[in-house]
């Protein structure tokens, strides 16, 4: 039996959060951070991490 992906739970949580929040990433920052943490620990053993960017998102800073 194939081994379960160690970051599958976090990947599914991201998809669920994005769907529930009309794909607004800013509403899912906590679950995205959890995915990053998982990928830092398990990137070599996780297919889910292969498509997940390791870089932190750039912040849009505007001066008003």
UniProtKB/TrEMBL annotation:
It is found in: Mitochondrion. Disulfide bonds join 7-38, 17-28, 39-49. Residues 44-64 are annotated as: Disordered. GO terms for cellular component: mitochondrial intermembrane space. Keywords: Disulfide bond, Mitochondrion. Belongs to the CMC4 family. Pfam families: CMC4. InterPro entries: CMC4, Cys_alpha_HP_mot_SF. It comes from Monopterus albus (Swamp eel). Residues 45-55 have a biased composition (Polar residues). PROSITE patterns: CHCH. This is Cx9C motif-containing protein 4. The keyword Nucleotide-binding does not apply. Its main location: mitochondrion. The keyword Transit peptide does not apply.
């Amino acid at each position: 039996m194939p081994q379960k992906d160690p970051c599958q739970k976090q990947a599914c949580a991201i998809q669920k959060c994005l769907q529930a929040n009309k794909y607004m990433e800013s509403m899912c920052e906590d679950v995205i951070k959890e995915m990053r943490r998982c990928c830092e620990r398990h990137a070599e053993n996780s297919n889910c991490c292969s498509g997940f960017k390791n870089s932190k998102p750039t912040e849009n800073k505007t001066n008003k």
